[in-house]
Design brief:
Elements lengths: L44 E4 L2 E5 L8 E7 L7 E6 L3 E4 L5 E8 L2 E9 H6 L3 E4 L5 H15 L9 E5 L2 E9 L4 E5 L7 E8 L14 E4 L2 E2 L3 E3 L5 E4 L2 E2 L3 E2 L10 E3 L2 E7 L5 E5 L2 E6 L4 E5 L2 E3 L10 E4 L2 E5 L3 E5 L2 E7 L1 E5 L10 E5 L3 E4 L6 H9 L3 E4 L3 E4 L3 E3 L5 E4 L4 E4 L8 E3 L6 E8 L4 E7 L13 E10 L7 E9 L4 E10 L19 E9 L4 E9 L6 E3 L4 E9 L10 E2 L4 E2 L4 E3 L6 E10 L5 E7 L6 E10 L7 E6 L12 E8 L2 E3 L4
Parallel strand pairs: 8-9, 9-11, 10-12, 11-13, 12-14, 12-15, 13-16, 14-17, 15-18, 16-19, 17-20, 18-20, 19-21, 20-22, 21-23, 22-24, 23-25, 31-32, 32-35, 33-36, 34-37, 35-38, 36-38, 37-39, 38-40, 39-41, 40-42, 41-43, 42-44, 43-45, 44-46, 45-49, 46-50, 49-51, 50-52, 51-53
Antiparallel strand pairs: 1-2, 2-5, 3-4, 3-6, 6-7, 26-29, 27-28, 28-30, 47-48, 52-54, 54-55
Length: 677
């Protein structure tokens, strides 16, 4: 892999010299403040291009130290030296070193040191082909047992596989887990087995959230029984793929992947595939959207077969990802593609590597908003390792072309001292943010804001890109939570690739109205996402359960490809009226009244409520340029009362006790149409 220096940080210091004169003059300007520097942390080990050096703290009771070396954590360790001092050097910067503190023949303690452990912290495991398979499987099983049913755990885990073949490794994945191959292409890392099931929930995968896998070949079949907030990217599956575990599931997302066999979606309610090649896709369910895909689709026509097939993805740059080779670690940034059909990596992966030295690697056991903002201010990119980061102030991404990347479902949690936002991206070119979970607190204006306000600034030549971002209000703990808007996009020219924006509907801290009663909690909101910027595109947008409009789109030339939304389960009708109390409920998908150009494909709004009425699932202006293709409503309640009266703007028919679903094929110029314009 050829490294390229892609970002240069230029710090220009201007020194002003003042001559001493004997006449009166204005006082000199104060000196410029010193340029910010990234935080540094004390460590017992140091690294250079020439290798690693250990300078360890003496162990009480030890008289000598036996030092052993292995090229990998679970590999074979070979004795190197026995010595009385604690300074040791070795040429393998990426090796693992076990230090046994001895008192004669008695082992006092044993510690493991490595670049990987120092860099990524305790919640990341880096595996190598030289590892003993039994040890790797034991650790994977321990992590899976801890996270299989831990829906609201604070534990986080990332498994990174260096290039090679792992035919005996059995990768099972629970909550808050990501798996990543460290090659440039998914063909460089091969797993023999990979599985996500819902056995912990009796085969019901509707709660299998928050996990992801990328950049790996699986030599056999894959089970991926998941729902929202689950990412399956840059995968090469040599067998078949199954998307359920015998019961319901509510996904989901596949992108830039090749499934050599067939995909059987089983009980999946809805699914989105982007730039994916497969032999055959079986079962259509309520909604399937294929964007830039190749393969045999379920037969039939809309709405009897709910399939939306769009030939090419208009604009995409695949999510950045970590890589490793003889030069060390880096982050690969794929090139932008327009009107792309199929996968990006079949012959050669186009893009460039940003060396990891250009990143500040964040760890939740030591970093704060202050240290993270220091790193951003000095021009560093951010790599969030797995953990929960409690932030007393917003992270401010102010430099163009900054990359912010999370692994292991790294979670940004707002504290009571912070009533603004978790992250604010300035209105600058080329920022990339991906792989993070944003968690609400007692109150804040937003969780993430892109651009402080709407401007005329164009980023068309170097767009802002957001991918695999998840937002959560309530559900995780017994506490009141509240946020006005989870995600506000004010900048123009933003590409959004896979969001789940969720006001919790189960578990802890879930209630419609504010409460101060002990033992009762609420999660009070306004909107899930508000788009004020122009030329914003969303692939796979899922927004659920917010108090008012789930999605508000005020920007021009917006586009959504696949939308899944459940309106709130728990409203009180008297509190749930829009348009100054004249309209029952709030539409899920609201296009601003003054918008003249908007496109949306594969839009589904679901209803699960006994008693309340929602007059329209979608509201949009009656303009020729406001275009909807394949929109529908679905009743999840059965015969429990309540209804969505119309799909869009007073037409489309109800879902209620007697109607389980309604669908419209084309809608534009303010009415249902029989064909595309």
């Amino acid at each position: 892999m050829k490294k390229q220096v892609v970002y240069a940080l230029a710090i220009v210091c201007v020194m002003c010299m003042f001559a001493t004169v004997l006449v009166a003059c204005d006082p000199p300007s104060p000196p410029n403040p010193p340029a910010p520097e990234a935080p540094t942390w004390e460590s017992q080990i140091s690294f250079s291009d020439n290798g690693i050096q250990l300078n360890l703290t003496p162990v009480e009771g030890a008289t000598t130290y036996d030092i052993y070396y292995s090229p990998s954590r679970f590999g074979e360790y070979a004795w190197q030296v026995t010595q009385e001092n604690l300074t040791f050097s070795h040429e393998d910067k990426y090796g693992y070193f076990r230090v046994d503190a001895m008192n004669g023949d008695q082992l006092v303690s044993s510690q493991l040191f490595s670049y990987d452990l120092e860099l990524f912290g305790p919640n990341t495991s880096v595996y190598s082909p030289t590892d003993f398979v039994e040890d790797v499987n034991d650790e994977i099983q321990q992590k899976f047992a801890m996270l299989e049913s831990a829906q609201f755990s604070s534990e986080r885990y990332a498994a990174l596989f260096k290039p090679g073949t792992y035919s005996g490794v059995r990768m099972q994945m629970g909550y808050y887990t990501t798996v990543s191959g460290l090659g440039v292409s998914p063909t460089e890392v091969t797993l023999g087995y990979f599985n996500v099931n819902a056995q912990w929930f009796n085969g019901n995968a509707t709660h299998n959230f928050w996990r992801g896998i990328e950049n790996v070949t699986v030599s056999g079949d894959v089970q991926w029984a998941v729902s929202q907030a689950t990412s399956f990217r840059r995968m090469n599956v040599l067998g078949n793929m199954r998307l359920d575990d015998g019961g319901w599931s509510s996904g989901g997302y596949i992108a830039d992947s090749k499934i050599r066999g067939s995909i059987n979606s089983g009980g999946q309610q809805q699914w989105f595939c982007r730039n994916t090649d497969f032999n055959k896709y079986q079962n259509a369910g309520w909604s399937r959207v294929f964007l830039g895909c190749n393969g045999t689709l379920p037969s039939g026509s809309w709405p009897n077969t709910r399939v939306t097939d769009i030939q090419a993805t208009p604009d995409i740059a695949e999510k950045p990802y970590i890589v490793f080779d003889s030069d060390g670690y880096g982050v690969f940034v794929p090139d932008v593609a327009t009107n792309r059909d199929g996968i990006s990596w079949e012959e050669q992966t186009e893009g460039y590597v940003v060396p990891l030295d250009d990143f500040y690697v964040a760890r939740s056991d030591r970093d704060t908003a202050e240290t993270l903002n220091m790193a951003l201010a000095c021009g560093k990119h951010l790599l969030f390792t797995p953990g929960v980061y409690k932030l007393d102030e917003a992270l401010r991404v102010e430099n163009a072309d900054t990359i912010v990347l999370g692994i292991g479902l790294a979670t940004l949690k707002i504290t009571d001292r912070n009533t603004d936002a978790l992250m604010i991206v300035s209105d600058v070119d080329g920022v990339s943010v991906s792989g993070l979970l944003f968690d609400a607190g007692t109150y804040s204006n937003a969780l993430m804001r892109v651009g402080d306000s709407k401007t005329g600034e164009s980023h068309a030549h170097n767009k802002i890109r957001l991918a695999d971002l998840y937002f959560r209000v309530g559900g995780a703990e017994r506490a009141n939570t509240s946020v006005d808007v989870c995600l506000e996009i004010n900048s123009n020219d933003v590409v959004c690739d896979h969001f789940w924006i969720w006001r919790g509907d189960h578990s802890h801290g879930v209630g419609w109205a504010p409460t101060t009663e002990e033992g009762r909690y609420s999660n009070v909101t306004k909107n899930g996402i508000v788009v004020n910027g122009d030329n914003v595109t969303c692939y796979a947008l899922m927004v659920e359960h917010f108090h008012q409009y789930q999605t508000v789109w005020n920007g021009e030339n917006g586009a959504t490809y696949f939308y899944q939304s459940e309106v709130p389960y728990d409203p009180i009708q008297a509190d749930w009226t829009s348009h100054d109390g004249k309209v029952l409920g709030y539409a899920s998908y609201k296009v601003g009244d003054n918008v003249t150009n908007h496109q949306a494909y594969g839009i589904g709004v679901y209803y699960f409520q006994s008693g309340c009425i929602l007059e329209n699932a979608i509201e949009a202006p009656s303009a020729p340029g406001v275009y909807f293709e394949h929109i529908f409503t679905q009743n999840l309640s059965g015969k429990k009362g309540g209804a969505i009266s119309n799909i869009i703007n007073g037409v489309g028919g109800p879902v209620d006790n007697d109607h389980g679903t309604q669908a419209i094929t084309y809608y534009y110029d303010g009415q249902i149409q029989q064909e595309r314009p």
